[in-house]
Amino acid sequence: MSVVPAEVLPGGALDVEERSAEAAELGPRARLWPSTAAVYRAQLSRARVARIPLLFVATFQSIGILIMMRGVVDGGSQAESVVAGSAVLVVAFVALNLLAQYFGQLRATGGLDHYATLPVPPAAVVLGAAGAYASFTVPGTFVTAAFGCVLFGLPLANLWVLLAVVPLAGAALSGLGAALGLLAPRPELATVLGQLGMSAALLLGVLPPERMPEFVRFARDLLPSTYGVEAYARTFSARPDWAVVAADLAVCAGVGAISLAVATWAYRRAAVR
Q1: In angstroms, rounded to a whole number, what is the distance separating the alpha carbons of residues 57 and 246?
Q2: Contact at 8 Å (CB) between 206 and 81?
Q3: Which residue from 87, 270, 49, 264 is spatially nearest to 170, judged by alpha carbons?
């Protein structure tokens, strides 16, 4: 009876160890933007059923505010602030209010455990959900802005600026809404915080700033969507100062990056508990 060394056999111990080592190697980490796109598509598909009622409620609310303010404001810079603020309010209703409720319910029902098992970065979950919710606001924002311009006799030529205002203001408000929902200890409190945030966007974003007290103007400057409102309101003048408009949009983008970073931190904090 001959003895054959184990290392020369195809199924020997060394071959098994080598294959085990190869099987133990992990694949590359998921990249941020492909993961964000995947979460975005999933969220967009999940909320597709509720999209029409959502758009109707957000748009109808802002149009109602425009009609109400028509009896108070005649025109000029005050009308520009009202129209710009009402358009951005559609974004605030969805991105701030509803996203706070969504993440609050997700945390309370253990839905974060599902996302924790997926091979996606935490930032991709926040960015994907925020982008999906903000996408719902685009038609309503344009309808509200166009209706307000016709109602107050403002030009429609620079309506395209909303293509920059909506994603930037949406990112800032979505990050804030996600952070409120993830940090709230109970979903009921997340709903209350979302409602309070939307009320702040309504009062500080729609009302003309020149009629506000000084301390209220300071609070208005702290609201993330204010710079999106200011950027769009400046485009109603005969000769808009595009450098100032770009500066307002840049500030809105910076605030959006900070708020999304805070939301990502809040997601990591909530997911490990």
Answers
A1: 31
A2: yes
A3: 87
